[in-house]
């Protein structure tokens, strides 16, 4: 995290101070290239920087696919998705869940192609994922605040004590406020082309989750946690 901050923060400052025409960046088909050009005024340097960014993205794809594959495998192992028996298989020869990883790769590729079809739909799904991620953070925090940290949490090395209740109280409130503002339209008047479709994505995904719950809820086993072993290692 420290390395990421020390490298990303100075670059962010340089980009913000180097932009001279924000409208050109917003209207550009490739905003990152436009930002690099406004800073350097050299097409050669812009080409090198964009190739460098593409190389970094390709290097990050492997970790993204492996992580997504492990998450898909874990959910399949707990029988939370259709065809769980098939996707929870772990290859004996390769020592990792090949089927779940291939499923994650196909999903990521199809999701990336959506950007070519509609940037509005792509951005709405990305924003919806951020809102859902905040919800997954806020719900456990609210449960801890209502039930009590002593009853709900195991023994651990890093214990905030009473200060933890402040985090548990503020997290749902801040997540609700931020989620509400994220769902607002970006500009007025609202039209079909500039509408914020994040609420539509949220409702749609919620319906999918409800459908999975009613169809797979009885088969879902949940993660098996050895609390005694976890307490011993704390």
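-> sequence recovered:
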């Amino acid at each position: 995290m420290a390395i990421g901050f020390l490298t990303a923060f100075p670059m962010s400052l340089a980009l913000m101070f180097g932009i001279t025409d924000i409208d050109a960046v917003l209207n550009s088909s490739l905003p990152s290239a436009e930002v690099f050009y406004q800073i350097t005024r050299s097409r050669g340097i812009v080409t090198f920087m964009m190739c460098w960014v593409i190389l970094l993205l390709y290097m990050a794809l492997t970790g993204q696919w492996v992580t997504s594959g492990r998450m898909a495998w874990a959910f399949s192992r707990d029988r939370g998705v259709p065809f769980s028996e098939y996707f929870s298989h772990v290859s004996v020869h390769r020592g990792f869940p090949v089927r779940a990883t291939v499923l994650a790769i196909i999903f990521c590729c199809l999701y990336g192609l959506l950007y070519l079809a509609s940037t509005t739909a792509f951005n709405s799904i990305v924003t919806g994922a951020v809102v859902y991620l905040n919800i997954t953070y806020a719900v456990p925090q609210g449960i801890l605040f209502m039930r009590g940290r002593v009853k709900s949490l195991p023994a651990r090395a890093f214990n905030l004590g009473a200060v933890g209740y402040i985090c548990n109280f503020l997290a749902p409130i801040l997540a609700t406020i931020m989620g509400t503002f994220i769902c607002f339209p970006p500009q007025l008047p609202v039209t079909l082309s500039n509408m914020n479709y994040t609420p539509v994505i949220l409702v749609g995904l919620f319906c999918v989750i409800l459908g999975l719950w009613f169809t797979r809820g009885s088969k879902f086993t949940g993660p098996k946690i050895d609390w005694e072993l976890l307490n011993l290692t704390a």
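The chain has a mean pLDDT of 83.
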